[in-house]
Design a protein that fits this description.
The protein is 40% helix and 13% strand. The chain is built from 11 helices and 8 strands. The protein has a 4-stranded mixed β-sheet. Strands 2-3-7-6 form a 4-stranded antiparallel β-sheet, with no helix packed on it. The mean pLDDT is 92.
């Protein structure tokens, strides 16, 4: 059985064989994956050792102390947090061997082709079609709000393969090569001035059946693994005390006493406490993951994340007064990651507006919490047993 002492021994062996100071970054990351120290709870041969998930922090601490490079997790968050656990659960052995290593090292960036202009909150109503032609599927449709599509090599994609059955039953899950002919990525400029999101148009894109994940028609079930992991990845990220959005506000409060008022003080105290409660709850949620796959509880964390970010950023703008109305740069850019704390208060205020939309709208997540966590009666739905082609659109 792999314990903390064994992991420290294996980490010491990795560092001795590949000293971070003299080893190429990518070479080190590949060696770490091959040693089973990438994500220790994954199976042997796939970046792990079959060890308890809780022991990952042992490896991370040893490597950080040694100055070892990381895999830039913020840049490849969709691959790490969404694609990888889905491939691990539903992928063939060939798919796991092909995709997981370059995904973890960051050699291949992933994006998520789920939402559509007519199927955002109601994702199961998606209309992108995949039609079987021999050993290939020919895909046509449009996706939207696709983070990182402009730098991604691969995408997780859900498409409709059977319009004659109810909407949840006729979906299949694919791995799409973003460099294939027919994939057109267009920037979608946001209120921040940046185009971190994209539209993706798929025109006669041919996907081999070997890149199908799960069974034909099981795409909705496969997608639930992705979505549950996505909500944990967004709402349950590991933060230090005063990490995240509350940090810059607290820093300004301490350094600028002339900006303080009694009302702002009371609001800041409330949000600081709520941020700390959310941080500790996220830690508990991650510990629960040790015992199994993420469940609907992640929806609650993502809800809290969105609300807190918007309230905190609004307070920061008010605290700064006239300075809070300034904005540092409206230049059109296509960034590789979202940098909440590296920009000014105006950016945080504007960008946080998207938190209640991305990763599942707050309205949909409230339904998930009500029905799957609290066990309340489901909302009446008249379309669950109707063939997708017969639904009004």
């Amino acid at each position: 059985m792999t314990d903390a002492a064994e992991l420290r021994r294996r980490t010491a062996e990795l560092l001795a064989a590949h000293p971070p100071a003299t080893t190429d970054r990518l070479e080190f990351l590949r060696a770490r994956f091959d040693a089973g120290l990438a994500w220790v709870h994954y199976p042997e041969g796939l970046g792990g050792l079959g060890a308890p998930r809780s022991l990952q922090v042992v490896v991370d601490a040893e490597l950080e102390a040694a100055g070892a490079p990381d895999n830039e997790p913020r840049r490849i968050g969709i691959g790490l947090g969404m694609a990888a656990p889905t491939i691990l659960k539903y992928g063939t052995e060939e798919q796991k061997q092909r995709y997981l290593r370059p995904l973890w090292t960051g050699e291949e960036v992933w994006c998520q082709l789920f939402s559509e202009p007519g199927a955002g909150s109601d994702l199961a109503a998606l209309g992108t079609r995949a039609v079987r032609e021999g050993d290939d599927w020919v895909v046509n449709g449009q996706k939207v709000w696709t983070s990182s599509a402009h730098i991604a090599r691969w995408a997780i994609l859900i498409a409709r393969t059977d319009p004659d059955v109810p909407k949840h039953a006729g979906i299949t899950y694919f791995l799409c090569d973003m460099t294939d002919p027919g994939v057109d990525v267009r920037p979608l400029r946001q209120i921040t001035g940046e185009a971190e999101f994209n539209e993706v148009f798929l025109t006669d894109v041919r996907i081999p059946d070997s890149r199908r994940l799960g069974e034909i028609g099981d795409g909705w079930k496969v997608a639930q693994t992705t979505l549950n992991n996505e909500r944990v990845a967004i709402g349950g990220m590991r933060l230090p005390r005063e990490g995240g959005m509350i940090g810059p506000v607290v820093k300004t409060w301490r350094e600028r006493p002339e900006l303080r008022t009694h009302d702002l003080h009371q609001r800041l105290l409330k949000l600081w406490v709520e941020s700390e409660v959310s941080r500790l709850t996220a830690e508990r949620l991650r510990q629960q993951l040790v015992a199994g796959q993420p469940g609907p509880e992640g929806a609650g964390m993502k809800l809290a994340f969105a609300r807190l970010n918007q309230e905190i950023s609004g307070l920061e703008v008010e605290l700064r007064g006239e300075e809070g109305l300034l904005y540092d740069d409206w230049t059109m850019r296509r960034p590789e990651l979202v940098d909440f704390t590296g920009r000014d208060a105006g950016y945080r205020y504007l960008r946080s507006k998207g938190n209640s939309i991305e990763g599942g709208t707050s309205e949909v997540l409230l339904n998930i919490v009500a029905e799957r966590v609290l066990g309340l009666p489901a909302e009446p739905r008249t379309d669950k047993d109707v063939a997708w082609k017969d639904l009004s659109r």
